[in-house]
Design brief:
The structure is a homodimer.
Chain A (H helix, E strand, L loop, with lengths): L5 H8 L2 H10 L4 E2 H5 L6 H13 L3 E6 L2 E6 L1 H24 L12
Antiparallel strand pairs in A: 1-3, 2-3
The structure holds a DNA duplex.
Amino acid sequence: MPELDIDRVFHALGDPTRRAILDRLCHGPLSVSRLAEPLDITVTAVAQHLQILAESGLVYTEKIGRVRICRIETAGFTLLQKWISDRRSLWDRRFDQLGDLLAEPEVEK
Amino acid sequence: MPELDIDRVFHALGDPTRRAILDRLCHGPLSVSRLAEPLDITVTAVAQHLQILAESGLVYTEKIGRVRICRIETAGFTLLQKWISDRRSLWDRRFDQLGDLLAEPEVEK
DNA sequence: CGAATACTGAAGTTTCCACTTGACTATTTC
DNA sequence: GAAATAGTCAAGTGGAAACTTCAGTATTCG
C-alpha cells in the first residue's frame, strides 16, 4: 500500500484512458482483459494503468486464480473531494471577509 | 472562452506547480510576477501555466495596465465536483442493488 | 522623453509518460 | 500432461508537455 497523496490521485485522473477505466468500473467489477476489450491498447498497457489507479486509491484489485478482478476503491475519491472542498471554503471565505470587488486596493499587501 | 470540459480540468490539475498556483490564489488575487516569486521557474513558465488554468475554468485573469491579475474561477471546480459525485452515486447504487460481496457469481455477465 | 517594469511570443531543449514488443509465469481446461 | 488462457516483467520508442532563452510590446515612473 503506497502512501496515498493527492499528487498521485491527480496524476492518475489526468489520463483519459484511466478515467474511462474508472467509468466502466463504476458499473461493476471487471477483469483486466475485460477492461482492455473496448480500449484499443494492449492488455499490458491496461495493467499499467491499473497499477497507477491502485496506487492512487481509486481502484482495488485482487488476483483470484489467473484472473485479476478490479473494483472501484473510494479512498481516492474521498481524498479528491476533500481537496476541492478545502479550496472552495478558503476561496469563499475571502468573499465574506471584505466587500470584495469594490474597495480593495491591495492585491496581497 | 474555450469550451470547458473535464478533460482540460484534470489535465490542468495534474501538474503540481499549477495546483500550487491555485493554492496561493485561494487566499486572494495575485499578479503573474507575484505568483512566480516563490516558484523557482521563470515568469514565462508561470504565464503558460496560467493560460492552461484559465482555459480549464480554474482561474480568471484580467489585464489591467501592464499587470495581469489572476483570481480563482469557480466553474472548473464545480465541474470537477460534479464529475466526482456522478461517479460516486453510480458506484454506490451498485451496493444497494444486490446483496454485494456475498452471492454474486458474475463479474459483468 | 528615457528607463524600468510587467508581461508576451516564438522557438528550442529536455524530461517524462503512455504504449509497444517479446519473453515469461501461473492457472485452467481438455 | 499439453494447450489455451490471463496476466506479468523488462526494456525500448515516440510524442507530448514543462521549461528555458531571448527578443519584443505595452505601460508606468522619474
